[in-house]
Amino acid sequence: MGDLDRIYRQSIDNPEAFWGEAAQEIDWYKPWDTVLDRSGAPHFYKWFAGAECNTCYNAVDRHADGERGDQAAIIYDSPITGRQKTITYSELKDKVARCAGVLRDMGVEKGDRVIIYMPMIPQAAVAMLACARIGAIHSVVFGGFAANELSTRIKDAKPKAIVTASCGIEPGRVIAYQPLVEAAMKLAPGIVEGLLVVARDEASWELAEGRDRDWKAALETATPADCVPVKATDPLYILYTSGTTGQPKGVVRDNGGHMVALKWSMKHIYDVDPGEVYWAASDVGWVVGHSYIVYGPLLHGCTTLMFEGKPVGTPDAGTFWRVIEEHGVTTLFTAPTAFRAIKKEDPKGALIGKYDLSKFRMLFLAGERCDPDTLAWAQDMLKVPVIDHWWQTETGWSIAANCMGIEPLPVKPGSPTRAVAGYDVQVIDEHLKEVPRGDMGAICIKLPLPPSCLPTLWNADQRYIDSYLADYPGYYKTGDAGYMDEDGYIFVMSRIDDVINVAGHRLSTGGMEEVLASHPDVAECAVIGVSDALKGQMPVGFLVLKAGVDRPDAEIVKEVVQLVRDKIGPVAAFKSATVVKRLPKTRSGKILRGTMVSIADGKDFKVPATIDDPEILDEIAENLKGIGLAGGR
Ligand code: COA
Ligand code: AMP
């Protein structure tokens, strides 16, 4: 048995011993009573029950006070503004302690929630760590979400404070945050008591007296706050993610298990050493940003890179290579869509040759299925291992990966390789039986889940059970479908729910349908994700109008496109819709979304036996042609 098999077997056969040993890498105030408390089984498990720790201490203080005080903790590189800044571990400790002091002065106590609505600036990471320092629970909301989405999260998390900035910056436009934050607070009144605001040069924020504080001024005069011990099982953060409805799910992450798993992953999966420069080109608003822009690299004593820009257009498709050369990046982690964007602009990789990539060792891709073409192009151009790995907001780290720090396995295009230590991944049918190797099924994980995975949903234990555990008792349902081959390689092919993946962003078609249905002229609607060469999938809406509506279709389509942008946000990338006479349904009234996707993607499909009226499918095909979508694009 090789190292990989041995380690994997240990983690499954005796998770307590395996993770108990991995936990030695973390500093604890008080050790655990039990590594894994199973008393809440079959649904609820607690890692490192009884232990006390502090995530900020492990990510910042122990490096600042140890040998890494002068090492860069964060390099901020912002081609969109032309700014750069390096923050050492000592400086980071000072900033985080001051920010924590300000939050405390604003009345934020252990267990209180703080929403962080920020662009990709170092203050976002400082605010997250400051919350961790005093035991407050942060909830970062991605800047591309609109006021309505922000208000939903305010209502659910009930934050005492919001940390924000005067604006975000996208190519060609500055997004002033004040109108968005004010609108969100109006929709969720009486919850937020105070705001801490980073003033950026590109937009102003009018401070409301008694409510808002200016970041710079407040931190200058703050009394630094120390790390407080929290329970390993206390929440570190809540991160909302799309489910099948417009109500997002508040994924809870604990302190202890999260630290242990992330620290383990840095060496064993990414093969990175402390002191090296690790770059996750994502956003702090997504789970990748939480785990591998902020917590993972800092827990490991790496230098993390915060990049405020895009893979193309800021200023060109060579930006990634410029950053790698300039900052000596060894490991890059991004989504395949970023590579598709680069490949489109620079298919021959002419810009790659302009930079010295000699320190660059490995590229990791996740967030969506990595198509074999993109994998092959990246391998050809970069001449480094290109590693697809599969994970979810719910887990916080890889379920399947090629563990480069243990024993690299041959890459099979289209597969994120094998299950990672701690994850007993099985492809099963509705009778909980493993399907034969090579056959498609629901990809599930046998309980218990390893450390870092969600213990529950915020204030919604029953929803946690219903969403993830009820359908396959004894298993966690990932929501992905796929197969496993003879060698144990996992192939993640599609979702089994209404979640779609647009440019590596997870979005709910159900949420978009709720917005379309709120338009006064719309009687009925459906949203599907169709294949897109750049973004993986793009949402397309189908609208059935109310009887008697007598307005041009184009006008209504324009309005619903704007409505989704206003209610969910630009990140939904909802740009096409079509007015149809009727929607294809089964005789029991279920909309045949899967069949519509096949028509749009030009795939073969069987007309479902239960269809109410097969002619509707021809009508849908005609409509799709009308918006340039018959047969994919
Ligand atoms: N604040 C405000 N608006 C935002 C935003 C933010 N933080 N992030 C994105 N948006 C807007 C974009 O400006 C765009 O608006 P538009 O419709 O007016 O053009 C819209 O949301 C869609 O954004 P995006 O899907 O990012 O598309 P894009 O065309 O701007 O860029 C890529 C395409 C592929 C370059 C980009 O998606 C990318 O870099 N992806 C990397 C993947 C990634 O970060 N994944 C996260 C998980 S690893
Ligand atoms: P998120 O929670 O936003 O990270 O999205 C998680 C979902 O993205 C997964 O459930 C998959 O559907 C998809 N996903 C993420 N990484 C991969 C991957 N490497 N291969 C296939 N699908 C992926």
From TrEMBL:
<protein>
    <submittedName>
        <fullName>Propionyl-CoA synthetase</fullName>
    </submittedName>
</protein>
<dbReference type="GO" id="GO:0050218">
    <property type="term" value="F:propionate-CoA ligase activity"/>
</dbReference>
<dbReference type="Pfam" id="PF16177">
    <property type="entry name" value="ACAS_N"/>
</dbReference>
<dbReference type="InterPro" id="IPR020845">
    <property type="entry name" value="AMP-binding_CS"/>
</dbReference>
<dbReference type="Pfam" id="PF00501">
    <property type="entry name" value="AMP-binding"/>
</dbReference>
<feature type="domain" description="AMP-dependent synthetase/ligase">
    <location>
        <begin position="63"/>
        <end position="447"/>
    </location>
</feature>
<feature type="domain" description="Acetyl-coenzyme A synthetase N-terminal">
    <location>
        <begin position="5"/>
        <end position="59"/>
    </location>
</feature>
<dbReference type="InterPro" id="IPR000873">
    <property type="entry name" value="AMP-dep_synth/lig_dom"/>
</dbReference>
<dbReference type="InterPro" id="IPR025110">
    <property type="entry name" value="AMP-bd_C"/>
</dbReference>
<feature type="domain" description="AMP-binding enzyme C-terminal">
    <location>
        <begin position="512"/>
        <end position="590"/>
    </location>
</feature>
<comment type="similarity">
    <text>Belongs to the ATP-dependent AMP-binding enzyme family.</text>
</comment>
<dbReference type="Pfam" id="PF13193">
    <property type="entry name" value="AMP-binding_C"/>
</dbReference>
<dbReference type="InterPro" id="IPR042099">
    <property type="entry name" value="ANL_N_sf"/>
</dbReference>
<dbReference type="InterPro" id="IPR032387">
    <property type="entry name" value="ACAS_N"/>
</dbReference>
<dbReference type="InterPro" id="IPR045851">
    <property type="entry name" value="AMP-bd_C_sf"/>
</dbReference>
<dbReference type="GO" id="GO:0070013">
    <property type="term" value="C:intracellular organelle lumen"/>
</dbReference>
